[in-house]
């Protein structure tokens, strides 16, 4: 069970968190092999947190610590989105926080066109773009800096949203809504809170991790102009841990 002891993949001792963080009270193996600490307050304002996100993700990729890239449970979200889209393919899909483009490849193989976006560029992007000429493109940019409006039939966010600063949840969801076509689908995969309220955690690099209950995720996304379509619990290899994949539809004409 989360929070009741170290997982088989967790380090022997939780890594100490900075002393200046006053509100840590619980450690939790929310991420494979890394134990993160519970926090009640975010250590940075939103502007400062941008640099934290970039640095911590860059370092994880550079050091080969991007365990999510090879995690089987991570690859369920694009399939769940494609099931909800139905049809033979051909949708324009925006993959937010695309990483090494693993989901982009699955979406391309499913017949869709993909724009992958990430604050950390990957060498895989060029290979994928060559393999799927004219159907894949990648942009090294932050979600909130993405240009465009009403361009995509679907947006996938597999593991990106739950690392954002809580103060950015509203602008982030509003931007997704603007980027979607009327009736477009939004699939978001977050850490699932097994019981009670979802907590906010931070790793040793101060990157935040937010877990959600079904109700918390649904209430938050609904409040930004979406209607729930389905939620799926995707168990992870570590017992008791799961992702929560929410599928939402943009509510037409409901500008928030
Ligand atoms: C946990 S990883 C998941 C990567 C990928 N979706 C996958 O399934 O392998 C989260 C990704 O989101 C990216 N990211 C985080 N915040 C972002 C932001 N605000 N804008 C763009 N990318 C972001 C990170 O660099 C990282 O590649």
Automatic annotation (TrEMBL):
Keywords: Methyltransferase, Transferase. GO terms for molecular function: methyltransferase activity. One of its GO terms (biological process) is methylation. Residues 1-37 are annotated as: Disordered. SUPFAM superfamilies: S-adenosyl-L-methionine-dependent methyltransferases. This is Methyltransferase type 12. The lineage of its organism: Bacteria, Bacillati, Actinomycetota, Actinomycetes, Kitasatosporales.
């Amino acid at each position: 069970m989360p929070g009741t002891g170290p997982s088989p993949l967790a380090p022997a001792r939780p890594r100490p968190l900075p002393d200046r963080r006053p509100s840590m009270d619980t450690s939790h193996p929310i991420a494979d092999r890394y134990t993160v600490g519970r926090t009640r307050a975010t250590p940075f304002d939103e502007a400062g947190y941008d640099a934290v996100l970039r640095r911590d993700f860059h370092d994880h990729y550079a050091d080969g610590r991007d365990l999510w890239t090879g995690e089987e449970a991570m690859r369920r979200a694009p399939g769940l989105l494609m099931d909800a889209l139905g049809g033979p393919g051909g949708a324009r899909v925006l993959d937010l926080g695309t990483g090494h483009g693993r989901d982009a490849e699955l979406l391309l193989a499913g017949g869709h066109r993909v724009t992958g976006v990430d604050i950390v560029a990957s060498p895989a992007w060029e290979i994928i773009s060559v393999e799927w000429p004219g159907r894949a493109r990648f942009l090294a940019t932050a979600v909130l800096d993405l240009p465009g409006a009403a361009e995509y039939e679907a947006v996938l966010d597999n593991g990106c949203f739950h690392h954002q600063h809580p103060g950015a949840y509203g602008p982030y969801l509003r931007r997704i809504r603007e980027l979607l076509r009327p009736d477009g689908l939004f699939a978001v995969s977050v850490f699932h809170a097994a019981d009670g309220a979802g907590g906010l955690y931070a790793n040793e690099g101060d990157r935040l991790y937010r877990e959600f209950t079904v109700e918390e995720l649904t209430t938050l996304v609904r409040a930004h102009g979406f209607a729930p379509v389905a939620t799926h619990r995707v168990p992870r290899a570590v017992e008791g841990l799961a992702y929560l994949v929410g599928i939402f539809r943009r509510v037409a004409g409901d500008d928030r």
